[in-house]
Structures are given as C-alpha cells and as structure tokens.
Amino acid sequence: MVQNRGESGEGEQLDLIKEPIVLEEQERELGLEDLPNQQTLDEAEQEAPHETDLQTVERHLHPKFKDNRMNEVGQPIMASRVFPDNYLDLNYLLTMYMIEEQAEKSNDVDFLAIVTGNQVVTSIAYEGRGRADDLEVAGVAHEADMEKLSKELGLGE
Amino acid sequence: MVTQTIIKTPENPRTLALGSVNERKPIPAIPSSDAYRRPPFSESHVTIIEGDPRQGKTETGVARIRDAYDKDCIRVYCQTMLHINCEVKTYNRHTRIARVRYNGKLKQLRIPESYKMRSPMKIFSNTPLYGIPYIFVPSFEHLMVWLKAGYIVNGWLLVDEAQVGMNARACMTELGKELGKLYHQFGKMQLDVIVVVPMARMVDYLARTVPNERIHCTYDEKTKKITLTIRKKGITGERIVKYYAPEYWKNYDTGRRITE
Q1: Conformation bin of residue B132: beta by default, left when phi > 0, alpha when psi is -120 to 50
Q2: How far, in Å, are A8, B78, B81, B155 from residue B117 at the CA level?
Q3: Is residue B101 part of a domain?
Q4: Which A positions 15-44 lie with beta carbon below 8 A of chain B?
Q5: A contacts of B217 (beta carbons < 8 Å)
Q6: Which residue in B9, B18, B31 is closest to A5 by CB distance?
C-alpha cells in the first residue's frame, strides 16, 4: 500500500502494486436501458455550429454601450437605414435629447459619451451599411458551412 | 463480473524508495503497446475541465473517453472485418451506426449486433470506469511513478479531482515537484490527458500552463443536459455544446471519492 511520505519523504517506502492491471467491469445497472436516442458528446461536438468567428464579428459590428438608454435607442437604429438627408438632423436630435434627459436627472452630463455614441450609431446605420454588413457576414458563414458540408458528402471534388 | 488482464512487464521489484525517486533507478521497459501505437503528437492534447460540484465535470471526461473508445472499436472493426483503413467520424451506440470517411467519401456503417466491440486503446484513470477496459491508477504517487517508468504512454489519461494530488498549495512537495517535471511531456508520451478540477486555480501553476483546451460545465436538472463551454488555445471565441447526461451514467460512479 502507499504510505504517506511526509515532508521530506526520506527513508519511507512506497510499495506500489506489482503491475498495472487492466480492469473491465460491466456497465452499471441503473435501469436506464430505454434512454431516448440522443446524440453522444462526440456527435454533439461535431455538429455544434462554428459560430465563433461570426459572433466575434457581430459583436464588433454592433457595439454595446454602458448607458442602457443609449442601447435602447441605438440598437434599432444600427439595424435600420439612415438616409444621407436625415443624417445630421438625426444626429443632432439624438444628441440634444439625450443631453436634456441626462441634465434633468443630474448636472453631471457625459457630453463625450453621448456625442461619440450617437456618431457611432448613426454612422453604422448610414445608408443601411449596418444591415448590409450583417447579411454579408451571414452569407460568408453560410457559404463556409455549405462548403464544409459538400466536402463531407464528397461533392465537388 | 470483473475480469483482470495483467499487462506483461519485465520482472521488476516495484518497490521504490520514496526518497530516491530522483536517483536514476533502472527504468523498467515500456509494456508492449504495439497493438495501439499512435503517431507522435505535434501538439499537446491536454484538456482541463472545470465546473462547480455536481455539474458534470467527471462525466464529461468519461464521455470523451467513452466516445474515443467506441470510435477506436469501429476502426478495429473496419480493419479486421472489412479490411479497410478509414477515418471514423462518429458512432451512435443506440443505432450502432458509424459514419466513416473512406476514400475521401463519407459513408455510414451499421455494426452487427453480434460483433463484440473491442479495442486495444489504453485508458488510464484514477476513477473507476464501467463498460470500458481501463487501467486503474490508485493514487497520484502511482501516477507519478508510472509516468516516469513509462507505463503510462500511448493512450488516454483521466485525472479526476486533480486538486488532490496536483494541488497548487502542495506544488513544492516532492510529489508536486516530480509531477511538475512531467506535465510538459504528455505530448512525447502520446497521451491524451483530461484533467478534472473544480477550478483551474486549485491545481499547480505548471499544470495550468499545459492545457490547450478548457471546458466549463453546467448541468440542467430539467433537461438532464450538460452544457459545455469550450475554449481552445489560439482560437477566438468559444463553442457551446450540449449533450444528454444519462447517456454516460452507467460508465462511472458519481459517488466515488478520490482521496489520495
């Protein structure tokens, strides 16, 4: 048997079992014979979507702000289309309104965050660039998936 | 029913003086592993599995090994019965259908009920496994000595509750130092290593630098599914994988404690 070695381990003996032994025991009987046909871990891992790159790009394309109000207003705008004629007006409106809102709550208004945040939101949505980028990324991801699938099926070789 | 098969090794008194681990004792020859010889790894295959208690850490380790064993059984079936060399993609135990890639094409095979699945794959584990042939590693002292002696090579190694023997607070003990010398040589030993620990910070710093894959587990009682958040070294982002937990309950004993 294995004995405790203590700090130094000097002089003590470690008697190991003579040989590594291959054991084979039957599966445990737990009354689980009629399990539904679910995926094994290996199957689930192989079929899990490879969305990591897509998610990373999406996170960069649609930034989130610390201010909840900014997110509330900005997220739909980023997925919409801002026409060039309305660009400056919208930017002005958003900025002035948010400054007023903050000023009503306290005198501590973060002008920089409001101005740059609105600039980011409206520039992403300028002429619908935001939604065009989304569709482009989704299309590339879809193409990559289709290419992988066709390789697996032995097509196009 | 328990069957035991002894791996043939050269005659060797397996009594080692603890204080003399560092003294270069004659190392016994490596047990014959020709039956399961894998190509050298170009990178380490070490996975660290983390998660709160009862969240499916051990099960995930066992599941990985169980699936790898099944796939190796299919490889053996293809070689011995069909006389073909193919890459096994997946195997479903319920339907006994395997997906293999042969000559660049994906094919499906149904394994006959009469065929008894066997594989020479070597599995070393410090927690008992059921339904899979494995070599039990009774303690971390055994793990260290067997790694040094070359017994544990060319297979899979499951280290459950790694904080017991690889504890960060015990990294400067003799055992900790000796194990520390071995962590970065798992690739040379052609070992797929799975380290199971509640939190990575609980194990020795050296052991934390080796893994190239980190998995975090959470278990949902309602759906009985374990959700894995998998991060791989050098790859941005993470993958979310869910699998059905009861599938592997019969392969390990969740109540088994590891104390040495």
Answers
A1: beta
A2: 47, 11, 12, 18
A3: no
A4: 15-30, 32, 35-44
A5: none
A6: B18
Q: Per the structure block, which two tokens stand in for B21?
A: 């681990």
B117: nearest Cα among B165, B167, B168, B74:
B74
The pLDDT tens digits of the residues spanning B113-146 come to 988 888 888 999 999 999 999 998 888 988 898 8
Where helices occur in chain B by DSSP H, the ranges are 57-77, 140-149, 174-182, 205-209
Torsion region of B16: left, alpha or beta (phi above 0 gives left; psi -120 to 50 gives alpha) = beta
Question: Residue A89 corresponds to which tokens in the numbers above?
Answer: 């007006």
| The pLDDT of residue B109 is above 80 | yes
Q: Is there a domain that residue B139 lies in?
A: yes
Task: List all residues 6 or more positions away from B103 whose beta carbon is below 8 Å from its beta carbon.
Answer: none
Give the number of domains in chain B. Answer: 1
pTM given for the model: 0.66
| Inter-residue contact B156 to B122 (CB < 8 Å) | yes
Q: Is B72 contained in some domain? A: no
List the CATH number of the domain containing B169: 3.40.50.300
- How far is residue B67's CA from residue B259's CA, in Å, rounded to a whole number? 27
Which residue segment(s) compose the domain that B131 sits in? 39-56+121-251
Q: How close, in Å, is residue B149 to chain A by CA atoms?
A: 12
Whether the Cβ atoms of residue B147 and residue B181 lie closer than 8 Å to each other: no
Domain assignment present for B171: yes
Q: Tell whether B235 lies on the interface with A, counting CB pairs under 8 A.
A: yes
